[in-house]
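In response to reviewer comment 3 from the previous cycle, which asked for concrete evidence that the modeling workflow produces usable outputs, we include below a single protein chain processed end to end. The sequence was submitted unchanged, and the resulting structure tokens are shown without manual editing.
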Amino acid sequence: MNLTSLLRPVFAPRVRAARSWQGNIRGVQQEQLRRLLHLARHTAAGERHGFSAIGSYEKYAATVPAVEYASIRADVMRMVAGERDVLWPGRCRRFAQSSGTSDGKSKFIPVTEHSLRLNHYLGARDVVAHYLHLYPDSRIFSGKAFILGGSFANELAEVPAGVTVGDLSANLIDAMNPLANLLRVPSKRVALMADWNEKLPALIDAAVGQDITNISGVPSWFLTLLRRAMEREGVASVHDIWPHLEVFFHGGISFEPYRAQYARITDTSRMRYLETYNASEGFFAVQDLRDPGSMLLLLDAGVFFEFVPLDSVGEAFPDAVPAWEVEEGRTYALLISAPNGLWRYAIGDTVRIESADPLRIRIAGRTRSFINAFGEELMVHNADSAIARAAELTGAQVLNYTAAPVFAADDRRGCHQWLIEWAREPQSMEAFAEALDTTLQQLNSDYQAKRSGTIFLDPPMLTTAAPGLFDRWLASTGKLGGQRKVPRLSNDRAIIDRMLAMQ
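The workflow returned the following structure tokens.
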């Protein structure tokens, strides 16, 4: 039974809402801030910063300092222990474990009932709404969704009764309306399995034989799963398993290094892709145009956004601007205030403003995932695009990569070392390295200047990773899972040297 035509009107209002933001970004965002401050005025955070007396964005920015996770870790752990009204009203019983904090430990992001209702599930609704608007011929509700999620495995020695800690996706699946489970696979039991060696075959068992119309997850992990399914079924295309599959809702990492690989295992005439920006801290943006490359910021989904110029990152009171004052074409670090008790919180992502109104962004990278060892300011979006272009030109397929500087010494200039795990090696490593270098110079003027004449920076150095190295490294850190990943770029050699030692 195709329920798409019946359900389409349920989602259409969200597209109309997005249109209403144009020309009214200030009003929409100020209402989000007003509501957040009102709801949290009697919390410990609200009383500490005087939320009741804050009546404008300017006063909020001057009163409340920007923070990173290390500054709120103690408050969050009080919440995990069961204390009420700390960063957000009431008791929080769900926490999303994530990685990549400044002190090297996992972070635990509160997942409150307000954040589920006002943000995460509303964002998921927006994804479907914009997809249905872009593709009127969709039959997405004629079959089921195949959702690849994580588990409740976590690094806490003890979790209080009634509290769940794990991947964001595990929390979302666990809290989902039971009626939604009728439209998705796998079962909750399989979806929340922690051991991926057992989970992958169980996922395939659960999905094969079902009428799958859409899939959702991280591109790298879903690619592994789809290839395993194709190998088991003895087919050359995922559409030989799921003939009605029409869209991949993806996020977590850039899709560009994987686009060509998905094209090889799907029928490109009927496969569509829609990017989402759904982090542990919140659901922030969704692709609302057919052409990839930008996402519409969700201005009424419970989150208040601020944008920090890169030269102000790390300051307690940075020279931030609100959403209605961003400059098109500029790259900023993102601050959020959200209904999970994160106040002026630096999530560690940088975004490029593709359009100021409507406000569309592109994820540029991480504030700490870059290489600037030689003044080259290499960002993740540069690296993803260059890797994809080099693979296209040389017939290669890249499964995973990370890069770090090789620092100059008496007998050599500095360069970048690229550790790459191949699904298919290039016809020529030299040609791949040259294409990578050339594309980076085309995309990044600072890199181009440092490479000019090979005076300051040598060409890239390619190193082939042993099969499975990235997964083994992640497993060694206790972070193997559907939403975990190796940083693409590092400004030091700590990660790449540990990986090379495992070769």
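The chain is about 35% helix and 20% strand. We consider this sufficient to address the reviewer's concern, and the full set will be provided in the supplementary archive.
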